């Protein structure tokens, strides 16, 4: 077909309202090409499955809600370090288009969905009088399905065993090659080589696909007005075209939400028998729930986080939240902190005690009453200062609130029992003034009141005898 004939066919199809002929050019995403290479172009994406999407959302938002802090270890303990240009990238603005929340949320989604997440650190050389150093300008998330990881096992570029990342821009098609010093690489916990991770959708491909198929079945069931298949009994012989016309007629009258509850006409001599297929008999919802729990378990997400409260209570949900942090998030946070501190922090700053850390305490924010009890106990127990507690409540500092407060009845362990030792030393102080007997000598010359009653008693006896006489 020459170009003129091809143009005529396109115009004719356009005039008739038929699909346009591409003229032999086939797109890689076209359904015809996918069917030719054995791929189903209508395959449902894993993110369309509600449990899979919920797990991605839960993990990405959990990491994104934790701010990154810049600390330094000193002789007096850990203090917040003075912000630098690099630290502001992580805490204020990684790049002109993203906030830290959006940035880390995107990184975590790529890590869980594709198994790996890549962050390009754009640097420039800051020239000084003697030498210079590379400084990070901004941070960019590279779409994981556009990155290929290569290991230079032959030492062609620079040393044996170095990693190189080849990124293909999905908009322009240009390729960029980055060294391992320019890319932060975050991977899932499931990896055979320790270099790249495997995504959950690949490990549980059958389970995720089955959950998506069950959702498609429910969608088709709703589209048909919750009506199942039916059998049509008739006598005689019908050709193929008559059968197709008969089926279309019954489907037009009986299928779809718009025909729910309407009367269906059945020709004379025919009998329509619906196939009574109940979802309860096939345990459809039980199997769907079981698949959902399996997918959530692979991600490390607890049942109450995918809205399954069948075996949960208020206290149980709180313990599940703590278990989610210990069993799932602790590994993720530790991996991020190790990669950030190794790739972003200069060696001299790391030797001086500087480091980055996610503030995981935001995951355990409670109600106002519990928070006030926590702060009151911390201030009364000499753990935090009053002004530090006020800052947690977004309140300004108070005068005299930068000192630790202590209860007067609390003493150091080395002074335990000091009160008893003080009481035992009091007799020693009272033994010295026993000499006041000299001051009481004049009293000794006076008649002893203890012996005088004997004489008076004798006189009273004599009076009694005289009175008796």
TrEMBL record:
Give the signal peptide, or none.
Answer: none
- Which stretches are tagged as biased composition: Acidic residues? 426-435, 443-469
> Which InterPro entries does this UniProt record tie to the protein?
Phage/GTA_portal, Portal_HK97
Q: Which portions of the sequence form the region Disordered?
A: 419-469
Could you identify this protein by its name?
Phage portal protein
């Amino acid at each position: 077909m020459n170009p003129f004939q091809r143009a005529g066919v396109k115009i004719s199809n356009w005039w008739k309202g038929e699909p346009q002929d591409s003229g032999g050019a086939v797109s890689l995403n076209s359904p015809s090409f996918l069917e030719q290479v054995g791929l189903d172009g209508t395959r449902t994406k894993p993110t369309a499955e509600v449990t899979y999407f919920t797990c991605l959302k839960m993990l990405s938002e959990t990491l994104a809600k934790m701010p990154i802090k810049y600390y330094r270890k000193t002789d007096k303990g850990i203090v917040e370090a003075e912000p630098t240009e690099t630290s502001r990238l992580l805490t204020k603005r990684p790049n002109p288009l993203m906030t830290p929340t959006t940035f880390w949320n995107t990184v975590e989604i790529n890590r869980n969905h594709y198994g790996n997440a890549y962050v390009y650190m754009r640097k420039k050389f800051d020239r000084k009088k003697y030498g210079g150093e590379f400084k990070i300008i901004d941070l960019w998330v590279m779409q994981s399905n556009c990155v290929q990881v290569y290991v230079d096992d032959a030492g062609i570029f620079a040393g044996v065993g170095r990693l190189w990342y080849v990124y293909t821009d999905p908009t322009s098609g240009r390729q960029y090659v980055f060294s391992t010093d320019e890319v932060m690489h975050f991977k899932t916990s499931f990896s055979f080589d320790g270099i790249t991770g495997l995504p959950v959708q690949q490990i549980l491909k059958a389970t995720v696909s089955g959950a998506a198929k069950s959702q498609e079945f429910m969608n088709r069931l709703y589209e048909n007005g919750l009506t199942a298949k039916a059998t049509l009994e008739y006598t005689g012989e019908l050709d193929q075209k008559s059968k197709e016309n008969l089926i279309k007629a019954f489907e037009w009258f009986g299928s779809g939400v718009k025909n729910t509850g309407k009367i269906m006409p059945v020709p004379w001599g025919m009998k329509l028998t619906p196939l009574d297929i109940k979802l309860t008999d096939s345990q459809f919802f039980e199997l769907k729930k079981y698949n959902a729990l399996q997918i959530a378990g692979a991600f490390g997400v607890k049942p109450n986080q995918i809205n399954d409260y069948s075996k949960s209570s208020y206290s149980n949900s709180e313990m599940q939240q703590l278990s989610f942090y210990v069993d799932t998030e602790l590994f993720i946070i530790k991996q991020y902190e190790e990669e950030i501190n190794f790739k972003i922090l200069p060696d001299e700053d790391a030797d001086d005690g500087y480091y980055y850390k996610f503030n995981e305490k935001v995951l355990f924010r409670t109600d106002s009453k519990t928070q006030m009890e926590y702060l009151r106990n911390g201030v009364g127990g000499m753990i935090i200062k009053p002004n530090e507690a006020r800052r947690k409540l977004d309140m300004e500092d108070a005068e005299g609130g930068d000192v630790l407060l202590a209860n007067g009845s609390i003493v150091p362990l080395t002074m335990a029992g000091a009160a008893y030792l003080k009481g035992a030393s009091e007799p020693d102080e009272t033994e010295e003034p026993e000499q006041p007997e000299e001051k009481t000598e004049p009293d000794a010359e006076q008649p002893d009141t203890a012996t005088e009653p004997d004489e008076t008693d004798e006189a009273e006896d004599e009076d009694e005898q005289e009175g008796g006489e």
